[in-house]
Here is the input.
Amino acid sequence: MNARFDELKNIGQRLIRPQTPAIAVGMGTCGIGNGADQLFEAFRTTIAERNLDIQLRQVGCLGYCADEPLVNIYFPGKPLLVLHKVVKRDVTAIFKGIEKGTLPKRLVLCKISKWDHLSTVVEYGEGYPDIPEWNEVPFFKRQMKLIMRDAGLIDPSSISEYIAVGGYAALLKAVRTMTPEAVVEEVKDAKLRGRGGAGFSTGIKWELLRKAPGEKKYIICNADEGDPGAYMNRNEIESDPHMLIEGMMIGAYAMGAQEGIIYIRAEYPLAVERLTNAVKQATELGLIGSVIPGSDFSFTLSVVKGAGAFVCGEETSLMSSIEGYAGRARPRPPFPAQKGYLGCPTNINNVETWCNVPVVIGKGSAWYKATGTEKSPGTKVFSLVGKVKNTGLVELPLGEPLSTLVYEIGGGAAGKEKRIKAVQSGGPSGGCIPADKFSTPVDYESLAEIGAIMGSGGMVVLDQDNCMVDTARYFIEFTKNESCGKCVPCREGLAQELELLDKVVNGKATQEELTLMESLANSIGDTALCGFGQTAPNPVLTTLKYFRNEYEEHILRQHCSAGVCEALFDALCVNSCPMHMNIPAYLELLKENRLEEAFESTIRDNPLPGTIGRICHFHCQMRCRRETVDTPVHQGEIHRYLADTIYKMGSEQKIYETLMTEKKPATGKKVAIVGAGPAGLAAAFYLVRLGHDVIVYDANPKAGGVLRYGIPAYRLPREVLDKELELYKALGVKFRFNKRLGTDIHLEYLEKEFDAVFLAIGAYEHMDLPIPGTEYKGVIQGTVLLDTLERKSRVSVGKKAVIIGGGNVAIDAARSLWRVGTDVTVVYRRSRDAMPANKLEIEEAVAEGINFEFFTAPLSIKADAKGKVIALEVMEMTGGTFDTSGRRKPIETGKTRDIACDNVIIATGERVDSGLLEREKIVTTKWGTVCVEPYRYKTNRERVYAAGDMVSGPSTAAEAMGLAREAASFIDFELMGVKRFDQLFKTFDYSHEPPTEIVMTKQIEPRHLSVASRRGNFQEINRGYMGDQARLEATRCLRCDIRLSARG
Amino acid sequence: MEATKSPYFDTVAYDAIIDACNDSPGRLLTVLEEAQKITPHQYLPEPVLRHIAKRLDVPLSRIYSIVTFYSFFNLKPQGDHTITVCRGTACHTRGSKMLLDDVLLRLGIKPKEGETGSFTSEDMRFTVKTVACFGQCALAPVIAIDEVIYSNVTSEKLETLLKKLASRKVKS
Ligand code: FES
Here is the structure.
């Protein structure tokens, strides 16, 4: 055998670094699913046809699944080049490139100059200075390849390549030079822990079997990777099957077992094939099935295919299954080490645990322990999947924070404008970890502490479009179906839990049932027979712990913000619109040329349709089915068009009259509204139509709040706002201006005089910026600047202003000053992507030539002797690691400089005036917002309600109006004792036929004022759609509100 | 559907499978898996199960307990084409539920009360199944049509795939 071993080693080395150019295609299941097999075939035929002297082989997968198919190109003596996203079309270019010695730039991901296979280092060569080394690519940068040491670089069907990179050396070392006890000791000392679940010490488990009495002992590899969403074991076997065999053999030697079994999922045909082939090769070489020369160890190994049952991941079920029974759990003790497979002492370990063994023995425990944490040494392979940009298999030292995995390696959310909400770790037995806990280190203890588990290492990233209740329901449905049915808590308990969850997702549950759900989950966990049942309630428990608000939203509001629970909405855009505007209705009515009705439909849902149509963040567009075809429909631009057109034609009066005649008879109830901003106005619109006597108080001389005193006229012309406010007066809303809460009026008075008081004063206080010099002349708050511009139509500023901040106020201030001729620079301490401002607004500002300095943080404001601003001192920053907001933490570089200026505008955020609230005896949260009963909007004061930014914190006008609408509905119910709110709306008759043809046009851009004509004035930039544009845009809608099922 | 109609079937192929697996661990599972594979319409008809029980000398009841426990086994004949939709976590978060509904709807299959996991059209042309995970999670959502895997499937992509499938001739 020894001679043959060396011979194979030589062959392998020549295959890995041949004398000719070489192509290797990554052919894991994921590569093949992306066309790697066709690619391989294309390479093969070209080589054969043209009789080229190029070596072609298949290799495993490097783990960067999002960029599959991956192809390695090698020129003798040069670094290995890794190409990504290669398609068949690229084949010709690749051959040309091989001829010329340079490959198309677009295809090259990185180079590998040398690779550490741990027992051997392969030196490919030097060169290609412009191409990044593999570990400089963000996806690989923080990774450490212990388990995936050969994956993607060797041919998994070749034992010679495995031997060439040092394979089976650790086995020979163990059986020839170490006693079995010493091997067990080494594993124990390495503190290797089981990689499939709770992380029990592998060494201790081995010792148990070693010491167990009995002639015949078995070892089993659990390759029944049943955790949906985790697929590292598949790749480990597909890419490097001999690594698993070697690990098992070392284990068998150490524990005194003669026979091994690998139990593998039938759903992994390629892994089964490669594994079976590897066993055959090892047998032919004489490693398996005969005594290994130089030792007295012999071992046999068989491969058994599982038949699809998750519960078989549980040890005792797995053994039943191999014995030829249904996979039902048995109570423990006896433990497998005492009485396992066929009654013999047995050890079961997961694939990845076995794969660690050759490294521990080959490199020694001391080396091994240098990676990872004190209690959890080594690495773990994670499958990073779900709503993250770079999906794939990631191997990280244990103890790295989750943020590294999700943001640094994963590249953050997959969708441009999406926010990551949570990570589900550990599969059906695991838990959901909210984004604000992403600083948690990933190791067994830390994950357990927050209610999750490591499990097999599945990390499913969830974003704002995933509903946490649905996620919990999904897992309970899964575990309920997979329960083996032996014990009652698991069988019956999970079924009942599922029923309760079904009620929640259908909006039919009560608060009491929520409590019941929680206690049921706890009792299943406490009383189920095996680990499967004990951990099955984890997804419910963690979502209840971290996302209770989502459950409450389903129960109290019958709403699913994520737009997942289908019973609770018709169209996604309607569900996402804070005011639930019936978007399909007005689009269809417009298409049918029924303009007035279309407008009427919008105004009933959104009492400021022309205004909001201009300034909305367009929540609707973030969830538009059309996006799967090209770009979302511009629903907002269309309702703006409707409003503009109706006002131009003067036909709004007719609709106003309809609303006036519809007004409910006077109820005799008086309602005070404090704040005439978006929230106050929306509440007034509905309450007055319900017949209440509504008086709106505001500190300003005119109505509109932030719409008037915060949003510059170039975004919202005041005529539009004034026009839309006419309706309020017509409906009988009374305004009391120049009345400030806390100064001119007090809650005590309002409470006495009115039947209900609705607070909607927003969040207008500016945040303090803790730098020296904010008291100097020339320092202005961003909100104050915008307010002054509105009141006085001018501000006194110097030639050059610096604006601090990255939010909408900063951008509005910058663009306003630019218009009056000031030279403006915006400084922001993070990157452009991290700016919270509306992306479109930032783009416009850049187009206007406003200067931005990113990664620049304010240090101090400098002034001359008279206390007049002369400069802003800043510190240059650089991007550090990711924080829990998913953005890079700005880190000081130590480099400072002065930006000369006459004014410094501070726009670093707004907050609720909590001092005022305290004085008015309103209870606030720790963030300073008003404490209200969830979805009831009741404050601690009798008859006083609140909604909008003062409850939610700074948000958008549409969101504030949406909340106010709900509050109005509840206030009316409290005043009248009956539900009347729905009577304010009207259903229109329109076509319910989905389009037969998809109109192939991308979102239509409305007309815009050219940059050149913007300077020196505040004219509106967006001129809106023309009639045919609006109609065409409306026909782009796919009418996903018509449920497929209705199509019959 | 010959095999259901007639209790007589050629045992040679089944015997070959049984003989090949003599006494290795997990024999029963392997025999059943292989037997299902060679049976037309990919299922395990009763006569086949009886034959296996007799040859391996295990009670028929135990065989039934196995084939009903594991999702891999079918007791009913499968359609000419099988469309498998992954219902794993990664696929679920990327909309596989909608995809499954879509597939059923487009093939005109109405699941009966209480039916889960596997649905066959009345004309026996299509079977729609779900699977817990293909191990292709990075490219979710994933479906397989007659064992060929397709990743990143959208409702539009699905439409094209199914149209192509429907135009294919019925397997004889
Ligand atoms: S979850 Fe669908 S392939 Fe894994």
Chain A touches chain B through 64 residues (CB under 8 Å). The mean pLDDT of chain A is 93. The domain at 10-141 of chain A is CATH 3.40.30.10 (Glutaredoxin).
